[in-house]
Amino acid sequence: MITNLYLIRHGEAYSNVEPIMGGMRGDRGLTERGIAQVEALARRLAQGEIAADVLYASTLPRARMTAERVAEALNLPIHWDDDLQELRPGEADGLHIDEARARFPQMSLFFKEYFTPIAPGGESWASFQFRASAALERLVTRHHGKTIVAVCHGGIVEVSFLFMLGLGPQARGRNAFHMCNTAITHWRQVTSRDGRTEWQLIAHNDCWHLRDLESAQSHA
Description:
By secondary structure, the chain is of the alpha/beta class. The protein has one domain (2-218): Rossmann fold. The chain has 7 helices and 6 strands, in the order E-H-H-E-H-E-H-H-E-H-E-E-H. The protein has a 6-stranded mixed beta sheet. Helix 5 (125-142) crosses helix 6. The longest helix is centred in the middle third of the chain and has 18 residues, at 125-142. The protein is globular. The termini are far apart. The mean pLDDT is 94.
């Protein structure tokens, strides 16, 4: 039995470039460049490369805008899932990152003290990893043997590596998993006849659909 999980990062968002702590309050959606990236992604997906059975998406605006176009390309309804949101910044939501760091000094310890919230009312890395891992586990259990697409965030994709490899929160302090906006990460779960399962990483940071777009922008 094979289960395929495709994690797609959202297009470039205003919160990425400003940069703003982009929770529900600070997320103003996609930039013009982000919209162009999503269009390139949609053209690729419309060619039938991914035979998806089900589509999930984060409820943050930048992911919503991306998922709506992905849904059209895949001809699937969207199942909105709050647990696929990026790390929740609490009181830092909507602040410029420099202001947030000045107001909440604990942010400098975020990847050292894994149980310290990024800001009051926000998540720690450990609590975020637990939430995101549980969401991924729920998807692959609910749709075992199917092909799942989830439009989400860089943090969710990073957690997928820790989840699949069985690593704790301390691993994030030593590693980072870079990905472009709209990049595709493809995990495959294979179940043998004796019931043993293993995760295989098929692709990460797959963004070849942006080649022409990035080339055109670099010469503009």
